[in-house]
Amino acid sequence: MHRRANGEGSVRQLKNGSWEARIMVGTRADGKPVIKTFTAKKRAVAAKRLADFIAGVRTAAAPRPARETVGEWMEAWLCGYAATQVKTSTRVSYENIARNQIIPRLGRFRLTSLQRGDVDEFYQSLLRDGRADGKGGLSPKTVRNVHIVLHRALREAVTRGRIDKNPASAANVPSPKSARAKRRFEVLTLGEQRALTALCGQDPAGAAVVTALNTGLRLGELLGLRWSDVDFAAGTISVSRQLSRLRDYTPGAETRTRLALENGAKTGSSVRVIPMDRTLRDRLLAYKAAQNAGTPPESPGDGPVPPDMVFTGRDGGFFDPATFRYRYRRLLREAGAGRHTVHALRHTFATRALEAGVPVKAVSQILGHAGSQITMDTYSHVLPVFQAEAMTRIASYIAGTAPRKSRNVPYNPARSARALRPGG
User: Is residue 149 within 8 Å of residue 106, measured between CB atoms?
Assistant: First the structure.
């Protein structure tokens, strides 16, 4: 069940078997809440009394616009909630989804008339032909992102008394597991990875590619690194911000978008400290020395740029993600590798780590996933290798052909990597 928002109340079963609906209707002078309750023998009756009470309060407090459409409400929600309650990159994402997907297909519906069936058909239409270029449907993950935006906008409409219930709450949405299962992840082969690494020099693009292959950083996290985040003595990299291309809402802005650093990463678990191996540490030290020895740029970059950015553009400003993608694709061609997205660098790191025997929990923490299950679902293509290796070891142990390992021996990534090699 989804978590109820403020103002929706709650329903629970009492010890005597009856049901109680509760809602806070105010606070006393001492700050304690004033709770109104409704009790009934059946849950549906208690819930109905609670819903009738909420509807009556909202109707009396705020008359609803008679002909307000979903499109009009989305515009109001974007300018109100989305503009003040979320960070700028999230606001840009919400606005893109609302203007490109929700408003064109649901905007004409009256807000009070929107039903669950309408939302279900909307999601199915996105899966069939939701791409803006007309070349097919959107992925299940993208449809889930659309659902998140629509659900939050309609939830706010419930809170403000525009509608009685959220029609997106019970809608059929592609499950996270099915969405991940249908995605095909690009992973560089070991030969492609070695050839690409050998081509990367001490320029920002080359150093960034090597760093991504050895840390699994997302593109925004990678290009948002500052030297203060890199602790050479401890051998760690702190991830606490990301570089994003944001819409510039400043009045009279010369450009519609700008590059900017945002504190915080993709999710709460994405703020993390990850280790550097010696090879990456030495490579970054050499790159830093080359960067310090270079000619300072004559013109500033895009926006207020901190002076200690790890990866910078030729003008000394932020390293534009579009420029990095272009130079990365050129490196791939020179290395004789296939066509891979930038995110393939992250997938390649995770795959190599799992192949080397690094525990899933450790890989999950390095990647900044919310939990190990996400890592296991995402990189399930590696699990059959683990299962086959495990079965071979079990059979060898039973047959007495393999020495029993001590349970007190600490985990050693290098030892695990050797064990997975042929003859290891």
Answer: no
Q: Residue 328: which H helix or E strand, with range?
A: helix 321-335
The predicted pLDDT at position 266 comes to 60
Secondary structure in 3-state letters for 181-241: HHCCCCCCCHHHHHHHHHHCCCCHHHHHHHHHHHHCCCHHHHHCCEHHHEECCCCEEEECE
The dihedral built from the CA positions of residue 57, 61, 66 and 70, taken in this order, carries a sign that is negative
Is the pLDDT assigned to residue 160 strictly greater than 90?
A: no
Q: Is the pTM of this model over 0.70?
A: no
Contact residues for 345 (Cβ-Cβ < 8 A; gap 6+): 188, 209, 212, 213, 216
Give yes or no for residue 408 having a pLDDT over 60. no
Tokens of 216: 């699994």
Q: How far apart are the first and last CA of the chain?
A: 49
Pairwise pLDDT comparison (422 vs 401), residue with the higher score: 401
Question: Rounded to 5, what percent of the chain is helix, strand, coil?
Answer: 50, 10, 35
Measured between alpha carbons, how far is 338 from 378 in angstroms, rounded to an integer?
22
Rounded Cα–Cα distance for residues 341 and 348 (Å): 11
Q: Is 154:166 a contact under the CB 8 Å cutoff? A: yes
CB contact at 8 A, 368 and 267: yes
Q: Name 192's Cβ contacts closer than 8 Å, sequence gap at least 6.
A: 335, 336, 337, 338, 340
Greatest Cα-to-Cα distance within the chain, rounded to the nearest angstrom: 80
Backbone dihedral region of 403: left (phi > 0), alpha (psi from -120 to 50 degrees) or beta? beta
Cβ burial 200-222 (10 Å sphere, 16+ → b, else e): beebbbbbbbbbbbbbbbbbbbb
Please name which of 280, 289, 290 lies closest in space to residue 231, comparing C-alpha atoms: 280
Structural contact between residues 192 and 335, judged by C-beta atoms closer than 8 angstroms: yes
Other CB atoms within 10 A of residue 183 CB: 10
pLDDT grade for 329, boundaries at 50, 70 and 90:
very high
- 37-79 pLDDT, tens digit each: 889 989 988 888 888 787 666 555 555 676 899 999 999 999 8
